[in-house]
């Protein structure tokens, strides 16, 4: 049982780390001499422009920013609730609250990645960036966001099924 508990804790911390990295790092859309994320666009690595309200797609960017931050917060809160429930629940009770919070985290990261998938081209076109930015590809932060989605989904279901044992 101790090994299972250690695995669950490591799995949850890994999910949180993936969410932090994908939210913070500047690699959602990359190309030869540029990289973009939900916060800024960098051309030639040194020339960075913060995405601001002058962009007509700013509301889409704000939605992605907000849901990624919420997903990270929910994941961290779920971990704290899990630790509290671990010592407070009676034997045989389920970690329903932890599962619910973790599944909310899963939902938020899915919404963020889906919005970005749908709107990233409009985002770059409306801001007037060079055409080479439109010819990029999804970066590792974007891929980590989808992997975090899978991890948080598995973790949320795992907490729902998990019963406290001796």
TrEMBL record:
Keyword annotations from UniProtKB, A to Z: Cell membrane, Cytoplasm, Golgi apparatus, Membrane, Nucleus, Signal, Transmembrane, Transmembrane helix
Sequence intervals crossing the membrane: 63-83, 95-117, 137-162
Membrane topology term: Multi-pass membrane protein
Coiled coil feature spans: none
Subcellular location(s) per record: Apical cell membrane; Cytoplasm, Perinuclear region; Golgi apparatus membrane; Membrane raft
Keyword Nucleus assigned: yes
GO molecular function: integrin binding; protein kinase binding
Signal peptide range in chain numbering: 1-16
InterPro entries, per database record: EMP-2, PMP-22/EMP/MP20-like, PMP22/EMP/MP20/Claudin, PMP22_EMP_MP20
UniProt GO BP: actin filament organization; actin-mediated cell contraction; apoptotic process; bleb assembly; blood vessel endothelial cell migration; cell-matrix adhesion; early endosome to late endosome transport; heart formation
One Gene Ontology CC term in the entry: cell surface
Subunit structure: Interacts with PTK2; regulates PTK2 activation and localization. Interacts with ITGB3; regulates the levels of the heterodimer ITGA5-ITGB3 integrin surface expression. Interacts with P2RX7 (via C-terminus). Interacts with ITGB1; the interaction may be direct or indirect and ITGB1 has a heterodimer form.
Classification via PANTHER family: EPITHELIAL MEMBRANE PROTEIN 2, EPITHELIAL MEMBRANE PROTEIN-RELATED
Family membership noted in the UniProt record: Belongs to the PMP-22/EMP/MP20 family.
Protein name, as recorded: Epithelial membrane protein 2
Originating species: Pelodiscus sinensis (Chinese softshell turtle)
